[in-house]
Design brief:
Shape: globular
Number of helices: 21
Radius of gyration: 30 Å
Structural class: alpha/beta
Helix content: 40-55%
Distance between the termini: 38 Å
Length: about 700
């Protein structure tokens, strides 16, 4: 790895991903060992080639990733992979083929290892140690005898597979057609390359799910990462091969995306506590045989558990929807949770839902939350907007006019940059859609292929932008030459066209980006503001009442079940992100908030007077789902790479708690005074747990 090239490329892509993503948060980088070999194990692999960029741009250490040789051999991807010091890996699933002919068992009882073919070409299509698979059956090839006969290592275990392969009286009407052959690939060279990197004290990154996907649960982890770590430590264990001892630290990494295929979305990269490989496992692995498999399994179990503790997973789409909706209801009204706190709360709700979903009170609450979500959809509101629909008046009418005017101004500012960059965005989007269809067609685990969309938008834009900028510069050059009569080859034309125009185009893009984002924030606040003015109290009161009741019931249920989830009452209280004082304030605020000007008892400020003046970009999107449930998801094929209960949807994170900028409309001092008044009268109001506090409590 050339460190200069690596650092230059990381700096370049840091700027690129910072443009594509609105916010990138990284947590736990202090946990990464500063020296020695480190194996980064990251999941879920939900954004193809962007995932390694997230680690390289947030980790303080240089990382060489394992990359599929299929991708490594592509012109553009391969060039970048070599610059980053990546290690190519030949994956068997990338070389699966469908040989012609029909296979059958001539005598399943007496010769179960003999497999024959009709119109087959075994010699050219199948190699020794390849795996034959079809619906219901899998077997390894021990020896290819001829084009129509081979010998299996072990017989087919499934009765269904044997029945399908058994010939009837008419051979042409039986047997199996359309079977697949997965070749055996020797990975010794790849493992040797990884061990060599570890011996040099370098870092290696791997996505153990085996490939990117767009499912809501982790795919079963491959054993490769455990074999790499154990192999390196066995080879360098004390007194072996005259090599110095080596300890490989495994750092689990969670990648949580907020709308990963969308431009200007958000992501959180969280590094977990390093996993130290037990010396007993190393000794077991060195002895080989069954103990080698046991040692690998033990290390895999530990790392899998650590990864699951860092990620948010759900069994299906509806469960995820309820988990996220419930978490929004639990959000305190007296303070804003950080993006890390929201992520941790979502994990805890997912864990609690899996443990207590059979509880009667939990089941009843789930039904009520689902009903509340349907009412929100009917009103066209987000959860955080429910309290605002009761505060209509002349002030809101005036503010609506101000918002519409500011929306017009933002549109004017955004227009030049949008017009300049619109062709780039449209072409990149079409390329990404095409690549998503290709990825879905070539995979057995992808739902919609959305995990490749962000990658191809970035790559396409990376090459389209210079091309279009060059075209714009040349067009301006022609204008100066033929429109203003300047000599075509004059220094003036070249300097202005190719040195002054590109910064101008980029500046217009930045201005358009900022104005467009602010304009969209304003646009999304128009409907609830309009509804607050025109909707009568009787129309929206049931929705507010339902939300208040759900909030109170949820708080009580968490107080009751929390100690059971964390083991003891003390552990539960120490680990709380939303403190009891926050819950009490929120519940009283929700109950007393009926119309403008109502106050929370005991507070000296009119915090019940909702402030329309501050609308930042966190206030609009509390929709947690990137993709709507697709009609064909239920029919998505399962495979050996995906668990049978995999979700039919793609997990995305809740995006309602964004750290945003307040708009420049209205008077913000009133809202600050209300917060100051409440903080003086309510102990614990300003208490906010940092990510380090959460980690210590856990």
């Amino acid at each position: 790895m050339n460190t200069f090239v690596y650092d230059f490329m990381v700096a370049l892509f840091y700027a690129i991903v910072r443009i594509f993503f609105r916010e990138i948060r990284h947590v736990g980088t202090h946990k990464i060992p500063k020296f020695g070999p480190v194996l980064f194990v990251a999941a879920p692999h939900a954004n193809q080639f962007i995932d390694p960029l997230m680690l390289m741009t947030t980790s303080p250490r240089r990382i060489g990733f394992l990359i599929a040789k299929k991708s490594f051999d592509r012109p553009v991807i391969g060039l970048l992979a070599r610059a980053f010091g990546s290690i190519p890996v030949s994956r068997p699933q990338d070389y699966v083929k469908k040989p012609k002919g029909t296979i059958y068992l001539p005598d399943p009882t007496n010769t179960p290892l003999v497999l024959k073919g009709i119109d087959s070409t075994f010699i050219s299509d199948i190699a020794t140690h390849s795996t034959i698979t079809f619906s219901g059956g899998t077997a390894e090839v021990a020896e290819v005898l001829s084009d129509t006969e081979l010998r299996l290592k072990k017989p087919f275990a499934s009765p269904e597979a044997i029945a399908a392969l058994t010939l009837a009286s008419e051979p042409a009407s039986a047997g199996v057609r359309g079977f697949k052959v997965t070749p055996f690939i020797d990975q010794h060279a790849m493992f040797d390359g990884v061990v060599e990197k570890f011996a040099d004290g370098d870092c290696v990154g791997i996505f153990p799910e085996g490939g990117s996907h767009d499912r809501s649960d982790l795919l079963p982890l491959k054993a490769g990462f455990a074999i790499m770590a154990l192999t390196a430590m066995v080879k360098h264990r004390a007194g072996a091969n005259n090599l110095p001892p080596l300890e490989v630290m495994i750092v689990p990494v969670s990648l949580s995306y907020f709308h990963p295929d969308k431009f200007r979305s958000r992501t959180v990269v969280e590094y977990g506590d390093p996993v130290r490989v037990d010396t007993e496992w190393v000794q077991m692995y060195a002895r080989g045989g069954p103990e080698k498999r046991v040692a690998t399994g033990k290390l895999m179990d530990v790392v899998t558990e650590r990864l699951r503790s860092l990620t948010v997973t759900a069994p299906d789409y509806n469960s995820l929807m309820l988990i996220q909706a419930t978490r929004r209801l639990y959000r305190p009204l007296n303070r804003k949770l950080s993006i890390e706190e929201n992520l941790e709360l979502t994990r805890r709700f997912a864990h609690a839902y899996g443990k207590f979903q059979e509880n009667e009170r939990v089941a009843e609450l789930v039904k009520r939350v689902a009903k509340y979500n349907k009412m929100l959809e009917a009103y066209g509101l987000r959860d955080h907007q429910v309290k605002t629909v009761s505060v209509g008046g002349t002030r809101e009418l005036r503010l609506l006019a101000q918002r519409l005017l500011s929306l017009l101004l933002m549109a004017l500012f955004a227009s030049p940059g949008t017009v300049i960059h619109l062709p780039i965005m449209l072409i990149a989007n079409q390329i990404a859609i095409h690549k998503a269809k290709e990825a879905k067609a070539g995979s057995t685990v992808k739902i919609e292929g959305k995990d490749v969309v962000g990658t191809w938008k970035v790559l396409s834009t990376l090459f389209l932008t210079p091309a279009f900028y060059t075209m714009y510069c040349f067009m301006y050059h022609l204008y100066l030459s033929f429109g203003q009569g300047r000599p075509f080859f004059s220094w003036y034309c070249f300097l202005v066209s190719y040195l002054a125009v590109p910064p101008f185009l980029f500046s217009m893009g930045v201005i358009g980006l900022q104005a467009g984002e602010t304009g969209m924030d304003v646009l999304r606040s128009i409907w609830p503001l309009f509804l607050a003015i025109v909707a009568p109290q009787s129309m929206t009161a049931p929705l507010r009442t339902m939300r208040t009741d759900l909030q109170v019931e949820l708080s009580a249920l968490i107080g009751e079940l929390g100690p059971e989830l964390f083991g003891t009452q003390e552990a539960f209280e120490l680990s709380r992100i939303v403190r009891p004082s926050d819950v009490d304030i929120s519940n009283r605020y929700a109950k007393d908030y009926v119309r403008r000007g109502r106050r929370v008892p005991g507070s000296s400020g009119a915090i019940g007077d909702f402030s329309w003046e501050e609308v930042d970009d966190k206030e609009w999107d509390d929709d947690v789902f990137l993709f709507r449930k697709c009609q064909d998801q239920a029919d998505s094929p399962a495979s050996e790479y995906a668990p049978s209960n995999s979700s039919n949807s793609y997990l995305t994170m809740d995006d309602d708690d964004r750290a945003g900028r307040p708009l420049l409309t209205g008077n913000r001092s009133q809202a600050r005074l209300r917060v100051r008044d409440l903080s003086a009268s309510e102990p614990g109001f300003r208490r906010v747990l940092s990510s380090e506090d959460i980690g210590k409590a856990e």
